[in-house]
Structure formats: structure tokens, C-alpha cells
Amino acid sequence: MSVLVTPERGDRVALLVPGSPDYVDAVWRLLTVGALPIPLDPRLTPAERERILGPLDPTLVIEDDAALQVLRGLLPPPGLPLARPMHCTSGTTGVPKGVYSGVLKPALAEALVAEERDLWGFGPDDVNLVLSPLYHSAPLRFALGTLLAGGRIVVPGPFDPAAVTAAIATERPSTMFCVPTHLQRLFSHWDDVGWPDLSCFRLVAHAGAPCPTEVKRRLVEEFPAGSTWEFYGSTEGQFTACRSEEWLERPGTVGRARPGRRMIADDDGTLWCVVPEFARFTYYAAPEKTAEAWRDTPWGPAFTVGDLGRVDDDGYVYLDGRREDLVISGGVNVYPAEVEQVLGTCPGVEDVAVFGVPDTQWGQRVCACVVGTASEDDLRAFARAELAPPKRPKDYRFVAELPRTLTGKVLRRRLADDAAASPAGHSHAGDQQAN
Predict the structure, then answer these.
(1) According to the model, what pLDDT value does residue 406 have?
(2) Three-state secondary structure along the chain?
(3) Residues 352-386 pLDDT 10s
(4) Using CA atoms, how far apart are residues 286 and 179, in angstroms rounded to an integer?
(5) Which of 36, 107, 114, 265 has its CA 20 to 30 A from that of 408?
(6) CB-based contacts of 138, cutoff 8 Å, min separation 6
């Protein structure tokens, strides 16, 4: 859709272009006028775009750099963001949901900016090195927070250890957000070519997937003392923050609730987070899903994303498991139900179950168990046409029937355990995601 008019307060603008400083600037300008950017992976197939954007009914869809530049020219200079970007989460049903903050009153908008600035100490001297795609919430939040504080950002492009190393040498960044896969690949590269001078960093934050213990310990050893953090959050909101030194004292924790928040665990382990007014949200045009996510507590409204864990007497949170069916591969959330819906339309597929198994490089890799006559080549070709790279199964297994409960629910954990015990060996590097 061509950009014909200036976006206005409440408009929704889908962005399907690669990340860049101009991309972040466009996001900032949209938020300044109270329009809501919808950041999306530009690699989405046409079918995925239609499925995700349909319920969100965007006012504009930006699909190339020329349109992005026109959009920037139509908008005023960036100022106070009056909203949060509308990031999308598929949820366990595979139905896309837009996380919608609405347009905030100025006082709440200022509180939202101040919370990030005060937690991470963003300032005018900061240089934020962007490693992850800017359509993800965390890297966009760190980049925007840096710019709001008067700092600058460096975007080397699709993740490449050599390019990141060069950027560290020439730009001397002070902050970066990463996922454990980034750290693993950087450490391996630096072991081969030599380690760069990392003394410029004051903040290195990681999240998105559990960090292997050996990677965590090396992170603490190699970066400046006190500079490394982990945090726990989701597309919907942020929960905890944890200095690595705290993790060393309490291995496995993801820290305590961020200032202004409270973490609660039900008897069944479901985690809930009480958040301030500026951090509340609804799922756009999905009141029933919104109602399922929120409840009242003595401390105020709290929401859950279905994660399980516990909170100890000192307030430290430990995760006992992510949502049962969520696969986190290279820091990217992959929802099996969505992949199953797509693969289920492939000719020759009678039934399919998608699940994750541990992977030393990606944290988890996406696997599919298939009933039917479709071959592995058929499935890989179909997935390449219909699914973005992170969602494409890396292993395929073929069975006569899927194990199910009496109520028909697929026993994904059994499939995952069987796959982990007897690897299929069908991992194709060309199908791995480029984060």
C-alpha cells in the first residue's frame, strides 16, 4: 500500500523493511504522533503477512525503503513517544495477536520512557550496538531508549561475528542487547581470530532463551565487571532484571521484579506480573484473549503469558519451564500451532506435530513429526515457500500416528523426548535462521 497521507493518532502502520537507523527513526516519529508501528519480519511470506495483518487492519503497510523514506518525510521530528510499538505474538493457538498499549497520556508516556532510562542508565554518551533484528521488541526498545537519551545506535546489518567485531573496534559501543546464540557465535569467532578490546562496554544485556552455564560464566569473565545483565520478559511486557553477579550467587535465577512491578506465582507455578499503568496492554481486537491474560490482585492488575516458575522468599524468580509448546530457537519465539497449521496444508500431510529439542547452537531447534505420504523434500520445499526461516523445521520424522491424550491433545513432550534420545540427523544448515 502506498503512503498517501500522514499517519495520525491511533493509526496502525505495518513495517516490513530491514532494520536500520532510519527504521528506528520512523518508529520514533510514528510514536510521537500517537500512531502505532507494527514491526514485522520482512522475510514473512505473503501468506504469513495476510494471516498476521488481517486481524490488525493496518492503516498503512510499508514494504520497501522508498516508502519508508516517504513516511519519515510526512512525519514531524521525533519527540516524546506516546505509545508502545504494536509487536505481534502468535500465542499458543497460532492466531496472531497485536500487543496494544493504546495512546498514553503525556504523564504516562514520560513514565514509560523514564523507567527504561533509569533501569539501564541510558545517557547521551551511549552507543548502542544492535545485534538482533529491529522488528523484535527488545533490540528496538534498547535502540529507541538510547536515542531518547541523546545517544546513537550502530546497526551492522544481519548478524555476522566479523561485522560485529569490526563495529566494536571502530564504534566503541557502550551497550548491546543479545541472545545466547549471539554470544556463542561471537565467543567461537573470537577464539579463532583473537578477542577484541571489550572495555568500552558498560552494559551487555541478554534474554530470549536460557543461557548455557558455561556461556554465562565466560560472559562474566570477559566483559567489564558489573556490565552484564540478564532479563526476563515477553512481547507483552517486561518482568525481571538480574545482574550476572546475582546469578552467580543464585544460579538459575532470572532476577527480581523490575522497579514498579511485582512477580507472583500460583500454586500450579503460573507466573503473574503486576505492572504500572503505562505498561498495561490489551490484545488488539481480541477481548477474550485479553481477559484470559489479566486478573486483579491486591497489588493491582496482573498479567500472565503462561510461563511457569517460582518466586523465592527474597523475590528472586526461577523459571521451571516456558509455555508448554513454545520453541525458542536462536532467541526467536516459534509457536508450533502456527507451523502445524501451515504444514497441515501441504499435499500428502495427514497429521503433523511440531516441537522443539535442545540444540547446542540455537538453544532449541524446530522439529516436525508427520503422518502421511509427503516426503522430506516435499515438506522442505513447502516450508521454504510458506514459512519464514526461523519457523521452518530442521528435522522431520515420519510416523504412522501421533501420540495423543484421550482428549486428543498431542503429546509433544513425548515426541521431544524421543527425538532427543534418537536424533534424526536431518539438520540442514541452509534452513537455519539468520538472526
Answers:
(1) 54
(2) CCCCCCCCCCCEEEECCCCCHHHHHHHHHHHHCCCEEEECCCCCCHHHHHHHHHHHCCCEEECCHHHHHHHHHHCCCCCCCCCCCCCEECCCCCCCEEEECCCCCHHHHHHHHHHHHHHHCCCCCCEEEECCCCCCHHHHHHHHHHHHCCCEEECCCCCCHHHHHHHHHHHCCCEEEECHHHHHHHHHHHHHHCCCCCCCCCEEEECCCCCCHHHHHHHHHHCCCCCEEEEEECCCCEEEEEEHHHHHHCCCEEEEECCCCEEEECCCCEEEEECCHHHCCEECCCHHHHHHHEEEECCEEEECCCCEEEECCCCEEEEEECCCCCEEECCEEECHHHHHHHHCCCCCEEEEEEEEEEECCCEEEEEEEEEECCCHHHHHHHHHHHCCHHHCCCEEEECCCCCECCCCCECHHHHHHHHHHCCCCCCCHHHCCCC
(3) 999 999 998 888 999 999 999 999 999 999 999 99
(4) 30
(5) 265
(6) 132, 177, 207, 208, 233
Q: In whole angstroms, give the CA distance from residue 280 to residue 201.
A: 32
Q: Kindly report which listed range (106-120, 124-138, 151-165, 396-410) carries the lowest average pLDDT score.
A: 396-410
- Model confidence, pTM: 0.83
- For 408, the grid coordinates are 486428543
Please list the residue range(s) of the chain that carry CATH number 3.40.50.12780.
Answer: 101-321
Q: How confident is the model at residue 95, as a pLDDT? A: 64
Type of residue found at 277: E
| Percent of the chain clearing pLDDT 90 (strictly above) | 77
**Is 215:180 a contact under the CB 8 Å cutoff?**
yes
Determine the pLDDT at residue 149.
98
Say how far apart CA 242 and CA 248 lie, in whole Å. 10
* Residue 425 backbone class (left: φ over 0; alpha: ψ -120 to 50; beta: rest): left
Cα 255 to chain centroid, rounded: 19
- The CATH code for residues 327-425 is 3.30.300.30
Higher pLDDT, 99 or 330: 99
Cell of 388: 519464514
CATH superfamily ID and name for 101-321: ANL, N-terminal domain (3.40.50.12780)
Nearest to residue 331, comparing CAs of 229, 430, 234? 234
From residue 222, how far is each of 57, 75, 88, 199, 228 by CA, in Å? 47, 43, 35, 9, 10
Whether pLDDT at 20 is above 60: yes
> Parallel, antiparallel, or unpaired: how do β-strands 363-372 and 395-398 relate?
parallel
60 DSSP β-pair partners: 13
